[in-house]
Structure formats: C-alpha cells, structure tokens
Amino acid sequence: MEVLVAVIAFAGALLAAITTGALIGRLREEASGWLTAWSITTFSLCLALGAIGVGHLLGFAPLTFRIYQIGGALLAPLWLAIGLIQLLAEKRSAQFSGWALGVGLTLVGGVIMLIDPVANPDDFGKELPIGNTFWDLWPEQLLRVVHVVVLLILFISLMVAVVRWRGGDDYDADNMNATVVLAPTGMAVVGAFLFPVPGPFVAVLLGGLSGAIWYAVARPLAPYEDEEDEPAPPPPPPPQQDWQDYGRRRAPEPEPELPPLRSGLGDLVAEYRAGETGEVDYAARMQTGGFGAPVGPSGPDAFGGPMTGTMMPADRFGGGTPEYGMPVPQPAVPEYNMPATGVVYAGAASIGATAKPAPNIYGLLTVFTLLDGSGEAFDKLAEETVEAVQAAEPDTLVFVCHGVKSAPLQRIVYELYRDEVAFSEHQRQPHMERFATERQVLVLATNVIELSVNAAKVVPLPSAFRI
C-alpha cells in the first residue's frame, strides 16, 4: 500500500510541476493576480506531494512532515482561495485585501509551523501522519482558522460566479466554469485535513487539485471562434431618390475649367449692334453659365443649405445685371468660402467624405501590458496625450486608447494617419515624446502591429475660411 501511495504522490507531484511551468509561462505573457496565486498553489502541491511520496517510501520525519503540512495544509488551499478572489474581484480594494490576507497568513503561519517543535517525533512511520497528533496548540489552531477562512472564501466565490454567469457574457461563463471545478475540489482538500482521511485519498485529492488548476487554465477562453455566429449583413442604405434628394443637393462631379463667362446683356447688345437677324438659341441662355456661355455641366452649387425653391445669387455684383427670367451667372468656385447666410455670401464648397481609403493611409495597433497597479497612471497619461493629439495634429485621423474587459492590465491604442509623413510628424510631437518616456515605468510588455486598411470612412480636414 505504501508503494501505491508513493506512486500516486509522485505522479501528482509531476502533474503539479508541469502545471506550475505552464502557469509561469503564461504569467510571462499575461501578468495577472490569479495566475500568480495559483502558481504558488501548484508549487506548494508539488512540494507536499513529493514529501508524501518520500515519506511513504523511506518513512516520515519532522522535515518531510513540515513540508507536507506547510505546502499541502496551509499554502495550497490558502492561495487557491486568493486566486479565486483575484479572478472574480472587480474592485482594486477587494484584490488588495486578498493579497494582504494571503501574504499575512503565509508569513505568520510559515513562521509558526517552522519554529514550533514537532511533538512525538519517534512515532513517525511510513503512513501519512495526521497533523493534530504531532502539532502543538498554536499550529493546530492556526490551521483551523486558515481552513475556515478558505472554506468561506470558496463558498462565496462559487455563489458569486454562478450569479454572474446567469446574467453575464462568455467571460462570466469562463469564470463560472473555473470556479465550479476549483471551489469543490478545494473544499474537499480542506476537509481531508480537518477530518482523519486515509493517506491514499489525501494524495489523490492533492493531485486532483493540480489537475483542476490545469483544466481551469488550459481550457479555451472566450471569445470562442468556433461558436461565433456569422456576422449579420449590414442593412441596405436608405433610398436617395425620395424626400432626401429634395431636401439637399447632391455633391457636384469634378469638371474641367470653363472659359471666363460673359454677361448675357453684353451678348444681346453685341447682336443688336451687328444687326444679327438669325435665330437666337434661347435654350443656351437658360444654362447656368448665362447667355453666351458654353453648354456643359454646371459649376458647384452656390448654396450649402437645403433647397427651399427660392433662387438667390451667389454674387450679385460680380457677373453683371441678371436678365429677366434667367439665372444669374456663377463662377466655377464660389468667391467666399463662408457659410451661406441667405443674403450675400455663398455656401462652402461641398466636400464628400472618403468612401474608399486612400492607399497612403498608415495605421498601427499597439497592445500594452501594464504592471500591476499602474492602470490609473497609464490611463491619465493616455488621456492627456489624446487631448494633445486632438488639439495639435490635424493629419492624425484616429488615436484611441481603450482597455480590455477580460484583461484589466492591457491597453490597446489604435492609430490611423493620412500617410507615413503624418506619422513621422506625429512621432516628433513633444506630447508623444513625453508619452513614450513616461510610460516606460508603467508598461511590462509592448506589442506593435502594423495595419493595412482595407475599408474606412475618413472625414476630410476642415477647410479654412477666407475673409
């Protein structure tokens, strides 16, 4: 029987060591509190299971007994509960309280269990020793307090995870799945130390806790790519031939420059002086350019507002006196680039937004992994930088910084520029140099992804008004 328990213990220790390596590897990519806490749990389980295996093969001693009790009875269940607090807590105060509780109990309990002498050391054998038999009063009471606190935390964590899952998203479902596996397993491990349980069951429970942590960390997390529904097609654009066309004019098509326009009255005087008797093309006189202008597409609309049915000239004094019943001749580009007041000035030339992205648009996506506790400082620095970019960089189309719900220590910055020249100018701005310098003490890792813009809507720069 001792050999069987030793084999089970060594297998569990190997699983715990592998799980610890996986947690540390993931911890390098994503710094989070629950990964750190569960790394301590699996490392403690590895030591405790190794001590159980050695004790069943060679016989227990005060050293192997202390390692088994500190690792399996104190640290493993305690840091399992602290990890669940870090996983489910949404406020910094709760996370900090969890860290304070874990560190305090670890220091106090570790010192007491290392210094306090072991009672009856001659009674050790190859069977798993029961803690109450060999501990004095202080270690025994300390372990009972820790186990009661752990049971309370595990139960509350299980209730919180289930409640959030009922009205939450995929991330809440992930947290619930992990908690449903870890909380009952942790309760069973605590029960094995509170009540006299045979050694094989204790080894199986400790190894099962390592497997539960492996499952909780290694399972795929949301969003699930295989379960995502196909994106719904975008709704068709509203028809443009109804009332919308009657409320606002269309943007004019680009056209070649026309020769200087002449006054229709001057053409009439020239005809009468020359004695022309042929038929006059009155249809040509009705064109936008006035009498004598070449027939062709009209220039840009002089009105920037809705069409009301009342014709108002763009410049009553620049093209001569208008003929009766004929529109006033208009220049190819309005003389004034000011908003139409309905009296003298014409509206600004209409400029359509870019429907297809220009090939020169340059984009970046930067993922910052922050140090624990530096989120507020980074957000304040990013907010000040965004305000400076908005005020001083007209060629920066998009500069956005936002967080990630499932990773509180990650920030993503989207950047779009009109071209690489605008990006170079952006990098030389003093506020960007300040952002690059001050974020170094707040950021753990940075990943930069260069974007290729396939489709975009880019609003043009505002035109400057001329007086």
TrEMBL record:
SUPFAM superfamilies: Dimeric alpha+beta barrel. Keywords: Membrane, Transmembrane, Transmembrane helix. Residues 365-436 form the ABM domain. Residues 225-265 are annotated as: Disordered. The keyword Secreted does not apply. InterPro entries: ABM_dom (IPR007138), Dimeric_a/b-barrel (IPR011008). The chain crosses the membrane at residues 6-25, 37-61, 67-89, 96-115, 142-163, 175-195. This is ABM domain-containing protein.
